[in-house]
Amino acid sequence: MTLITQHLIKELVINASYTSSDIARLIGATAGYVSRSGGVITRSEENFLILIINLKKRVAATQYVDHLDGSTLYWEGQTSRKFAEKRMQAGTDEIFPFIRHEASGPYTYYGRAVPVRMKIFPLGTPSQVIMHLYEHEATTPQFSAEEISEQSPLYVPRNTEARRYVNVRTVQRDYRDAALTLWGNECAVTEISNQRILIASHIKPWRDSTNEERIDPKNSLILSPTYDRLFDLGYISFDPRDGRIWMSDVVDDRDWDKLHVDDSRRLKKVPEGVDSYLHYHNTYVFDFSPSGKTIEELLIG
After folding, report:
1. Where are the domains of the chain?
2. Looking at the whole model, is its pTM more than 0.85?
3. Where is the HNH nuclease domain (predicted)?
4. Strand 40-41 vs strand 48-54: parallel, antiparallel, or unpaired?
């Protein structure tokens, strides 16, 4: 880890405000450097990547579509060079996002980010990157297993960690049971009914979901292992209107044949309330790339 990166980790305070001059000073740059950076700051010999993000753009600025949802950051890259995306793909940089909700004023530091899904486009079109603000998430209230226990008749041990474990497992079990009921106790695509191999998969990923969405059975698909993995990786999705399967062009036709997946497949139904979660998956998961080797690993496994 390089010296400037270490300095940023040590000095930056999550949820604190920083002006452009403050940010420049942290990396030893002159005043005005941040405003000239084009929204991305790095150095070839360093392993930091600073993102300067304005959620509300000035009229004259390029209207990148960036937005924030809890601890999930949706960021559009630049139309030229794309050096930031290359460094994100390499996975060697610490990413420091500074975000402001208005077109002027100080920025808020949201803690370090890690890319979880990317959709890289040719020059001229901004790439799309979804990042997890993992340090910011740690500072915000999360799902409380103890709160759930108040609604459960289950005996809970006195030990705090044991109680947390039992309650979390109870929530997971209740979510799976509700999901199975919603989907008729069988795979939503193949109609396999052996519950020992069926998986209750979140449509809107757990990391992206609110506490309520994480336990909402409408945010679920019951899938066999192959379909679950393909769906989780964004290689397939389903039309919110009629359940028709969407298949990514990233996967070779020969691999689709080996996986026994074709375009005749569809969800057996689209229950009310599931469509909005499918729309999210279509928009922010399908065709994004979490890794270059996942299909090979799936075929080998």
Report:
1. 3-137, 159-300
2. no
3. 187-239
4. antiparallel
